[in-house]
Amino acid sequence: MLKSLIDLIRYSAQIQKAKTLTFDRVLFVCKGNICRSAFAAGYLKNFDTSLKVESRGLQVDREVRSPNTAISAAIRHGVDLTGHYSRPVTAHDVNGADLILAMEYSQYHNLREMFPSSKDKIHLLGCYSTASYKLCLNIYDPFGREEKDYDACFNKIKTCINALICSRNVRV
């Protein structure tokens, strides 16, 4: 929680929701692309198959399968991660997206530094959270933790995506 407060102070001037919510191509980004961003992409794809939705990681050096704990938790939330393998974020991915959503402040900041010409389309998924989540906009990595931690993480992601979809005027 202390890290969240420090990040909130550090990045609060930069953090904001997307000004326009017209998007057809969404890119979710997290650290390793095996849990959070993969789940978020799968969840959003379930709502609108016409959207092009991808997920990538900032620290991916080889293809890695989602852990079994993530796969079983995701299935309970209606998302199948069994065929997912991690992929690194590239300039091509960023250039091809209308909206890029990071899971943590540090990832948001790193993406904006790595791709300065795309900074206006890089946002924090947690900005779309409900009031009960507003203090902590980070969606922390459940990797290596218990299934209940994956469930909590995936519930927060679902809440944020539901709000994102509603703000885009898509009926949930």
Descriptive notes:
The chain has a 4-stranded parallel β-sheet with strand order 2-1-3-4, sandwiched between helices. With 172 residues, the chain is an alpha/beta fold. Strand 3, helix 5 and strand 4 form a beta-alpha-beta unit. The protein contains 6 helices and 4 strands. It has one domain: Response regulator (Rossmann fold), CATH 3.40.50. The chain is globular and about 40 Å long. Helix content is 39%, strand content 11%.
Question: Which tags fit this structure?
Answer:
protein tyrosine phosphatase activity, alpha/beta, 172 residues, four-stranded parallel β-sheet, Tyr_phospatase_low_mol_wt, hydrolase, 6 helices, 4 strands, EC 3.1.3.48
Low-confidence stretches: none
Largest sheet: 4 strands, parallel
CATH topology: Rossmann fold
How would you sum up the global shape?
A: globular
Lateral strand order in the biggest sheet: 2-1-3-4
The count of β-strands is 4
Mean pLDDT across every amino acid position: 88
Number of helices: 6
Work out the helicity level: 25-40%
Structural class label: alpha/beta
Q: Architecture, according to CATH?
A: 3-Layer(aba) Sandwich
Q: How much β-strand is present in the residues?
A: 5-15%
Number of domain units: 1
Helix and strand element order: HEHEHHEHEH
- N- to C-terminal distance: 31 Å
Gyration radius (Cα, Å) is: 15 Å
Assigned CATH class: Alpha Beta
CATH evolutionary superfamily: Response regulator
Organism: Geomonas paludis
Family: Belongs to the low molecular weight phosphotyrosine protein phosphatase family.
GO molecular function: protein tyrosine phosphatase activity
Enzyme class: hydrolase
